[in-house]
Amino acid sequence: MEKQLDLVGIGECLAELSHLGNGNYQLGYSGDILNALAAAGRLGLKTGLITAIGDDPFLVGLKEILDRENIDLSCAPVIKDKPNGVYFVYVNETGGPSFHFLRKNSAACEAFTAQSITELINYARSAKALLFSSIPLAVMHERERIFELLRAIKGETIIAFDLNVRRALWSDLAELISVFSILAPLVDILFVTDEDDAILFGNRSPQDALADYQRRGFKQVVIRRGGAPTLVGADGEHFDVPVPRVSNIVDTTGAGDVFNAGYIAAMLRHHPAFECAAMGNAAAAVSVETRGGMASGVTIDKVEKLYRPLVKWGTFHGPARHS
Questions:
Q1: Which of 112, 146, 192, 258 is the most buried (most CB within 10 A)?
Q2: In the predicted model, is pLDDT for residue 128 greater than 60?
């Protein structure tokens, strides 16, 4: 099939209320996959979203954002009498961000029941890459239809999976771990954070985590570690990729989503895994300098400025190898 899009995502659209202090909140729109698609668009990719959108007071603003970000909505119907999910971002007692979600029975839950699975498969096939996370596996009805889509496009579209664990969405985390046996043969790239891994498996070294995911059958594994070097396992090697330092950190919300966009953007330009991770790290570093998960401050020029020193380091000194 001829590829019409670079990247399609499966995910939800959320109204985002960010606490500004003194009881005031700033309204925005977000969602892990939505954040990644917006960033991917700013990095030159043509994007589309598989979801369902609620018919509520947030609809007009959400549609404006999606149109502005040039995200194709051919497979994102508006569902009457269903709300969009909402989440609040506020500062906790340690000074870090905390989140409170209201997403039960949102329109996004109906994404795979309100649309023909054949139509969704053909749409995913029209893209060079597909990105999803564990969130739609938890909140969208008819999970097996997601697996059916993945099986249908395997080998035709690159499949990227962000573990992105949300403990509250799973009554038993063992259920999430159990789907690894289904996903591993289908997924081309696994994105995971050290925090995700600790939630599922407790404290262990990044190297042990990487080895475990590879034993489970995931071929290419990328472990994001905040300000520490990103650990990548690909093509029989594993190596660290440094993270740029930024002085003006405003909001880390969505930085991992933007990393995924940078990684995939470089991958679709046929860069090796080290350079893909460098692009992801650079994009994430740019994103934390502006507020909100949609990474409004990300531009190709800003990302390139941080990316090129990382690639030069890799070219002249070689990525740090682990035996």
A1: 258
A2: yes
